[in-house]
Task: inverse folding
């Protein structure tokens, strides 16, 4: 199980770089979307914000948008999914889905596996 999750994690890392170079770089250069990528806590965090905004269902992103906190200048903590959907291609959205869900699956799976190991279920 660990090997599969680790392999998916490696694939997620590769997709992170590809998604950042192909999609997020294009969005950073666009003056309309430049300030709609969400806040960047650390370097590359906006790549996760954009992937999340494009990969999650619209009902969830609208609920997040209604309950979000704005930090001024129109920029919130998360990326604006509606604007990003208008300025991305179908390929960008497919890449976002592949990256985000492989990242979420491998990360949560490795955490669950670690907790189960800590509880002694594999002894």
Result:
């Amino acid at each position: 199980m660990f090997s599969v999750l680790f392999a998916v994690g490696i694939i997620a890392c590769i997709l992170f770089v590809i998604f950042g170079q192909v999609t997020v770089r294009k969005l950073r250069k666009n003056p309309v979307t430049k300030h709609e990528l969400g806040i960047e806590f650390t370097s590359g965090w906006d790549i996760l914000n954009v992937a999340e905004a494009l990969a999650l269902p619209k009902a969830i992103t609208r609920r997040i948008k209604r309950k979000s906190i704005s930090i001024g200048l129109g920029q919130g903590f998360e990326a604006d999914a509606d604007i990003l959907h208008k300025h991305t291609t179908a390929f960008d959205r497919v890449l976002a889905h592949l990256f985000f869900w492989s990242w979420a699956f491998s990360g949560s799976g490795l955490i669950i596996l670690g907790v189960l190991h800590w509880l002694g279920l594999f002894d």
Summary: The chain has a mean pLDDT of 84.
